[in-house]
Amino acid sequence: MIADRIRREDLKNKIMSADEAAMFIKDGMVMATSGFTPSGYPKAVPLAVAKRAENGEKIGLTVITGASVGDEMDGALARTGVMKRRYPYQTNKFSRNAINEGKVMYQDMHLSHVAQFINYGYLGKIDVAVVEALAITEEGGIIPTTSVGISPQAISNADIVIVEINTSQPMELEGMHDIYMTENPPHRKPIPITSSGDRIGTTYIPCDPEKIVAIVECDIKDNVRPLGPIDEDSKKISGHIIEFLEHEVKVGRLPKNLLPLQSGVGSVANAVLGGLTQSKFENLTCYTEVIQDSMFDLIDAGKVTVASGCSLTPSEEGLKRLHENMEHYAKYCILRPLEISNNPEVARRLGVIAMNTAIEFDIYGHVNSTNIMGSRMMNGLGGSGDFTRNAYLSIFTTVSTAKNGDISSVVPMVSHVDHTEHDVAVVVTEQGLADLRNTSPTERAKKIIENCAHPDYKPMLKDYFERASKGKFKHQPHIIGESLSWHARFLKTGSMKIK
Ligand code: COA
Question: Strand 311-312 to strand 371-372: parallel, antiparallel, or no bridges (unpaired)?
C-alpha cells in the first residue's frame, strides 16, 4: 500500500492511476525524470504516455534524465515516437536506433553538465518532473530509490511534479542518499566533500508539496542490464591495471590503499573492478558514478570501506543479491545527486583513479567512447569525461579487437574523439598497458603500438607510423588521406585487415 509510504496526510488525495497522472503530460512538453543507468526511473507513467500515442494521440516530448533508463521509458517512448529530443545518455536499443535513424534529436553531454544546464535554463523550461520515489516525507520531501540522478534539479525547476512510489524498492534504501544542491554562479560555494564517505546533505530531496499533482503506485522492478561474464581478456586487463597500481604505490605516487576509485559502465569496467578482489589492496574507497555487481564482491571481500555513487546498477542477479542483503550493503553505499557524484571539483580534490572503457583509441592516445565507425551512436559519453579530465590518474581500457578480430581497437586515428591526448594517462588492452604520462605524441605512439595492439594489427600500425613519421611535420605525424582508411576498409569489406 503506498498510503503507508506517504507520510504527509494532505498528499494522500493526490493518489491516482498512471493513466490519470499521464494526462498532465502534454504534447511539446519538456519532461525531466529520475533514473540513472538504468535504475530508479519512472515506469508506470511513461508506459501510460506511450499507450496514449499507441492509441493515436499526437504527443511529442523532450526527455531529460540523469543517464540511461529502462525499456519502460526509453524503449516505450522511442517505439511510439513520443521521444523527440533526448539528453544526455541512453543505452536502449530502440532509442539508439531512433537516434541513429535521425528520428530523435540527441545531445550527448558530459553528465556533470546536465544538472547545472537545467539550472541555467540551457535545456528550456522544465514543464514536468516525473520521479520514482521510495516514500514522501512529512514535509513533502522525496526519498529517491536506487538512483538520484537529476531528480533534485528536475523537481526544483519543474512546474509540476508527478511521483511514482515504487513498492518493489526496499525501504532499507532510506538513509542511503545524501542530497546536496549547488547554487548558480556567482553564488556557488565549494562543495564540502574532502573524502568519499562525507555526508553533506539530507536523505530526501526537498519538494514544495504544492507542486505535486499526482502520486502513482508502481511495482515494476528496475529493468537492469545483464553484465557479460568476466572473460579471460577482461581478467588480463584487470591484471595489467593491478600490476601498474602496485608499481605506483611502490614508487610512492599512490598511497597503499590507492585513491578513490571510479569505474565506468559495462562488462569490461565491471570485470576490471572485480579483479581488485584478488589483489593485495585493502581499505579501498570509491567515488564513482555507478555501483555495479563487482562493488558488492569488493564489499563482501572486505576490500572497500565506502562506495559513493549516483546509482545502484547491478545485473538481475546482482539486484536479487542487493535486495536480499540491503541492510548490509547500505552501510557501505552513499547515493548522491549526479551533479555531486560526477563533480569535476570533487573528483580533482579527491584525486580519483578513473577507469573507463573505450570503443577505440589511437596511436596518440585520443579516445572514442561513443560513435562506432565515427557515426553510429552507441550509448554516449556518460560521466567518462567528468572523471577523465579531472582524475589523478585516467585509465582507458578496451579489448584490442572487436567483431571476431575484424576490427582493431587501436587505430591510426580515432573516428570520433571523446577524450583527447591531453586527458588520457594510461591505455590498456589484454595485450598490455601503455603509460602515456610524460611522453610526446611519437613516444606515445611507440608505446601504444608495442604494448596494446593485437599482433594481427601491430605490423600494420608500425608501418603506418613509420611512413607518417617520414613526413614534413614530426610532432604528431599523420598521413591524412590514410588515417581513417582502416574504418573505410571495414565499412567496405567487413574487416580492417588487408586481404
Ligand atoms: N569498433 C566497433 N565496435 C566495437 C568496438 C570497436 N572498436 N569496440 C567495441 N565494439 C562493440 C562491441 O562489439 C559490442 O557490440 P555488440 O553490442 O553489438 O556486441 C559493443 O561495442 C560493446 O562492447 P563491449 O566489449 O561489450 O563493451 P562494454 O559493455 O564494456 O561497453 C562501451 C563499452 C564503450 C560501449 C561502454 O563502456 C560505454 O558506453 N562507455 C561510454 C560511457 C562511459 O564511459 N560511462 C562511464 C562513466 S562513469
Answer: unpaired
Q: Write down the pLDDT at residue 275.
A: 87
The answer to whether the CB of 36 falls within 8 A of the CB of 65 is yes
Nearest ligand 1 atom to the CA of 411 is 7
pLDDT tens by residue, 412-437: 999 999 999 999 999 999 999 999 99
> What CA–CA distances, in Å, run from 162 to 73, 262, 470?
15, 32, 63
450 is catalytic: no
**Burial category of 103 from C-beta neighbours within 10 Å (exposed 0-12, middle 13-18, buried 19 and up):** middle
Chain-centre distance for alpha carbon 122: 21
Residue 102, judged by CB atoms within 10 A of its CB (0-12, 13-18, 19+), counts as exposed
Would the CA dihedral through 145, 146, 148, 150 be positive or negative? negative
CA 106 to chain centre: 16
Q: What is the pLDDT of residues 18-48, one digit of tens each?
A: 999 999 999 999 999 999 989 999 999 999 9
Residue 360 CA to ligand 1 center (angstroms) comes to 9
pLDDT for position 271? 83
Distance, in Å, from the CA atom of 380 to the CA atom of 110, rounded to the nearest integer, reads 9
Which residues in the chain show pLDDT less than 50? none
In the prediction, which pLDDT does 319 show?
A: 83
**Residue 265: exposed, middle, or buried by beta-carbon count in 10 A (0-12, 13-18, 19+)?**
buried
Residue 246: Cβ within 10 Å count: 14
**Cβ < 6 Å from ligand 1: which residues?**
228, 264-269, 289, 356-357, 359-360, 369, 372, 378-379, 381-384, 399, 402-403, 407, 409
Active-site residue, from 164, 174, 248, 289: 289
Longest dimension (CA), the chain: 77
The position carrying cell 543479491 is: 321
pTM for the whole thing?
Answer: 0.96
What's the one-letter identity of residue 103?
Answer: K
> What is the dihedral angle through the alpha carbons of 99, 100, 103, 105, rounded to the nearest 10 degrees?
40
